[in-house]
Amino acid sequence: MRRYGKHTDEDDIRSRPNRKGNRPRTHIRPKHEDAAEGLVLTVDRGRLTCLVEDRVVTAMKARELGRKAAVVGDRVALVGDLSGAKDTLARIVRIEERTSVLRRTADDDDPYERVVVANADQLAIVTALADPEPRPRLIDRCLVAAFDGGLTPLLVMTKSDLAPPDELLGLYGALDIPYVVTSREELENGDAADRVREHLDGKVTAFVGHSGVGKTTLVNALVPEDRRRTTGHVNAVTGRGRHTTTSALALPLSSDEGGWVVDTPGVRSFGLAHIDPSRVIHAFPDLEPGTEGCPRACSHDEPDCALDAWVAEGHADPARLYSLRRLLATRERTEGD
């Protein structure tokens, strides 16, 4: 078999005839240096709504991106018709590097991870204090996903008129997580939105919570010009609400500081199959130095863990170690426990 080097004579190379008469295939792809920058606002059945400057543009992913998918919050490069006119379609040719990623799986046995939102600064975990009852294990799982994905958590407790927040606050006090407590009356008169907005200005915040906790109601109060349908109904038997948000959507926050709110569909489970437990310790900088004496591949929840002695010597608060181990154990428990 004849082989050719780098400097072959062009006349010496045989090429197969092209029956279709089109150009031969090439592995050289255009660089699209003149592509416009855009932000993905929502994704619906292969169509992506993007903000390009001050225009909303409908786009689809270019074939050259392969299986790589763009999600809400992605910064992308687009070519084609960028006018935003009706029945026009642009192409996403590049997905820029992400600064953070919030991922989840359907359950802990599902190897397929789903990216919920990209490039968010913080994760607002919304939970009702009653109707439906709070689910601490689901909150724990959201916290682990936030720490792993590089997002700062924010705990938002709704319906304080039905139950006090003391017990839930005591459970997460050692984690030093910022929080906001709201009531139904405050949501209606706008006071709750004002207090929550103080934590959102100038940031991209993803809102997550199970159905019926008032997440979309809160988002509507924060962004009244882009209201989404709310539920108002919680099943009396299951204690769960009905899904009203079916796709994630990024909405601009109307404030002097700017910012974005990403409303996500209500979740009934938050799988962590993709999470490496060894990365959770990075969210506890006061405990991390104490792991230097741990045996290799220490789970930080076993008899030989060096953290027990580290905390006993007074280097850290025992409540912090308890919180770490509770979060690490979330993969062994279901959200409803």
Please, could you describe this protein's structure?
This protein has 337 residues and is α/β, with parallel strands linked by helices. 18% of the residues lie in helices and 22% in strands. The chain contains seven helices and 13 strands. It has a six-stranded mixed beta sheet with strand order 10-9-8-11-13-12. It has a five-stranded mixed beta barrel with strand order 1-2-3-5-4. Strands 6-7 form a two-stranded antiparallel ribbon. Helix 4 (191-197) packs across helix 5. The longest helix has 14 residues, at 136-149. The radius of gyration is 25 Å and the shape is globular. The protein starts with 35 loop residues before the first strand and ends in a 9-residue tail after the last helix. The model is unreliable at 229-244 (pLDDT under 50).
- Specify the number of helices: 7
Biggest sheet features: 6 strands, mixed
* End-to-end CA span: 67 Å
Strand content: 15-25%
Strand sequence of the main sheet, in spatial order? 10-9-8-11-13-12
Structural class: alpha/beta
What share of the residues lie within helices? 10-25%
Unreliable segments of 5+ consecutive residues: 229-244
Elements, N to C (H/E)? EEEEEEEEHEHEHHEHEEHH
Radius of gyration: 25 Å
Count the beta strands.
Answer: 13
Average pLDDT reading: 84
What is the 3D shape? globular
